Input
Amino acid sequence: MNKLNVLIAGCGYVGCELARQLIAMNCFSVWGLRRNIAALPDGVNPIAGDLFQYQDLGEWPEQFDYVIYAAATDGSSEEQYQHAYILGLNNVLHRLSAQKQPPRRVFFTSSTSTFHQGNGEWVDETSTTEPTRFNGRIILAAEDLLQRSPFPGTAIRFAGIYGPGRHWLTDRVLRGEGCPKEPVVFSNRIHQKDCAGIIAHLIRRDIDQLPVDSLYLGVDCEPTATFDVLQWLGQKLNVSLDNVNYPPPMRGNRRCSNQRIIEAGYTFFYPDYQSGYTSLLQQIK
Output
């Protein structure tokens, strides 16, 4: 059987893990587009290119069956968000439109920053989105750009991605920086392996001609008060935390439901922060 061609445009932290998972299935030929192709995993067909330059998107095969747009910003400015989520996605969609064979589906790695709720509310794919900050507005506009394209499109809103190489929360704990118990600030997260796993699962569903929605929330099964996460990590790392002089990390203070992706048959590698961080702490130690 001929392998399906998959393009991961912006093959970085999530994209490289997705590439590894798809290659392991032995039914995909994976192409990774990024500026530094030396950082691509073994087995990925390299495409040296710049997503922000339409004439510099590199050499592509005649057809991609699936495309994942997984670019990240080069920084935190509004212009950098515009480049990563609007300009880059628009360039890829236009390049795909110029090809004779359209992809079966385009996936976009979005963010829960598209939500405006910030008082501990539960949100899901049907919740209203009225982001007040430019990052949420730009990412929401990118979702709309995908849905208005001529291709079937699916956005996955990820929150609090962590995993190997992303230790900012454990580093905070190691510095002894806790946070007050009150007011409660809820946070959501997902392990890198599950970010990739959700996309791979949805690709398999699409191949099997099972329904794939236009939007999913990519979060684990346990939204948790940030205080509780920090205290648990402190116990695991044998660190006494100062819970008075440090504010809680900003994570939106909402509770995101992953019921839709669960109902689509996805099984998490790490369904909660305890299992995910236990694995991560073993690597750190």
The longest helix spans residues 78-98.
